[in-house]
UniProtKB/TrEMBL annotation:
The keyword Disulfide bond does not apply. It comes from the Bacteria. This is Copper resistance protein NlpE. Keywords: Signal. InterPro entries: Cu-R_lipoprotein_NlpE (IPR007298).
């Protein structure tokens, strides 16, 4: 008799655990064509917040270093310092070529209308860089587009963190 008294509650517990989940009313709401279009558009298009960009949201001022690709040497050791007042200092040394002479320039830079690209003045031949979180990426000097090449990942300068 005691065994039957134990089996009944255990059996009831098992049946309760195996029951169907309750109905979710949010599944009953049918999407209208407008919401379906909006949802597919949102999924396909990344949101760009025009109020937040590299210029006003990142701590871009500082010293960036790296070894940029070179056509006729082993690399260009580059140090680019961006100052909060939009001035820069650029130092370049062509490794494996010449006598280790450094080329230095300084001047001003400006952000483009998107706030994502900077352009150095004529003292640095109008070079362009994409500004990212703790890095600069060298861009095509004419168009500002990303450099497409098998060594594209080597066109980055890394920020020296304090």
């Amino acid at each position: 008799m005691k065994k039957i008294l134990l089996i009944v509650p255990v059996f009831g517990l098992i049946l309760t655990a195996c029951s169907k989940p309750t109905h979710d009313a949010s599944q009953d709401i049918q999407a209208t064509p407008q919401t379906q279009i909006a949802q597919s558009h949102d999924a396909a298009t990344p949101t760009i917040d025009s109020e937040h960009n590299a210029q006003n949201s990142l701590d871009w001022a500082g010293e960036y270093t790296g070894l940029l690709p070179c056509a006729d040497c082993s690399g260009i050791k580059t140090i680019l310092t961006l100052k909060p007042d939009h001035r820069y200092e650029l130092s370049e040394e062509y490794e494996g070529k010449g006598d280790g002479q450094q080329f230095k320039s300084q001047g001003t830079f400006s952000f483009d209308s998107s706030g994502l690209l900077i352009t150095l003045d004529k003292n640095a031949e109008g070079r362009k860089y994409f500004v990212g979180e703790n890095f600069l990426e060298s861009r095509d000097i004419e168009t500002g587009e990303k450099i497409e090449s098998p060594i594209a990942e080597h066109y980055k300068l890394t920020k020296k963190l304090q």
